From TrEMBL:
Top-level taxonomy: Bacteria, Pseudomonadati, Pseudomonadota, Gammaproteobacteria, Methylococcales
Matching HAMAP family: HrcA
Matching InterPro entries: GAF-like_dom_sf, HrcA, HrcA_C, WH-like_DNA-bd_sf, WH_DNA-bd_sf, WHTH_HrcA_DNA-bd, WHTH_transcript_rep_HrcA_IDD
Function: Negative regulator of class I heat shock genes (grpE-dnaK-dnaJ and groELS operons). Prevents heat-shock induction of these operons.
Name this protein carries in UniProt: Heat-inducible transcription repressor HrcA
Keyword set, alphabetical order: Repressor, Stress response, Transcription, Transcription regulation
PANTHER family the record matches: HEAT-INDUCIBLE TRANSCRIPTION REPRESSOR HRCA
Similarity remark: Belongs to the HrcA family.
GO molecular function: DNA binding
Biological process, per Gene Ontology: negative regulation of DNA-templated transcription
Amino acid sequence: MTQSLELTDRAQHLLKVLIERYIEEGQPVGSRALAREAGLNLSPATVRNVMADLEEMGLVTSPHTSAGRVPTVKGYRLFVDALLTVQPPEQELIQRLWDDFEVLEDPQELLETASQLLARITRMAGLVTLPQRRRLTFQHIEFLPLSGGRILVVLVTDDQEIHNRIIRPRVSLTPSQLQDAANYLNSLLRGRRLSEVRETLVTEMRAAGEQLRQLIEMTQTLFSGEAMEEDFMLAGQTNLMEFNELAERELLRSLFEVFEEKRNLIHLLDQCIQAEGVQILIGEESGYRPLASCSLVARHYDVGERALGVIGVIGPTRMHYERVIPLVDMTAKLLGSALNQKLSAPS
């Protein structure tokens, strides 16, 4: 924010007009066009002098193929932090989104619909992370005997999601023994975060008898490795092909590899769940080379008082921030309200 204090009102206004025009047209903005559009009765020569100052400060740059200028990441950051005029979503759009959420009963469908709606409205890539299992808490476990000595493990978490796995103990266990084991684990683990459960099970296994130890060992698969990986839903990634600055083949290939590989993007989104409000990462600010030509606008969605995941948009740095930022904010709040409503409804 201190950067804005170093600029005169005239320089700030010209920077704002330049960035808005570049976002709209995607072409470098020349001094003559900027002088005409700024409405300040300035000569092109005066505008060129201001542009030279802005370039020296690292807020704009001149592509080698053009005499016009384009904003840098630093310029976009100043624009977003200090010069942006946000446009709240229309009430009709808010109601339409809520209507789309309200008819869905399955929380998974809600998340998928949220990413699809953001992609459709912004014409960019919409994404939403699934509730982070490490942040969920253990509520209840059951062991149900099946044929052939198999046992169905049923785990219920505090988002009312049910996780199932079939295990095959090396020794036979009676229904009574299974019930005793479930009672023991429920009293031991209820209310603990899933991130803590695996370590607790390892400790308990050392002191348990053979039969219980087998059950605990096999139950651990619900809390380990791939089973604990957070994931996300992505929609509209092909929309990014419509932007000239992202259409270069190698750039698109690296972007789609990011979406496919997921891990680094999940790590990036995880940072957003820790922060308040809408988070905007512009170009190289993500610290992730394949996203150097993109911006991420994201916000966590909450159930009760707890942030469960993140919803957001990925698009070119040349995006309409004034519309995208409030849209992501509003969609996150609507998604949280809809999830609260579904998860608190009587079964």
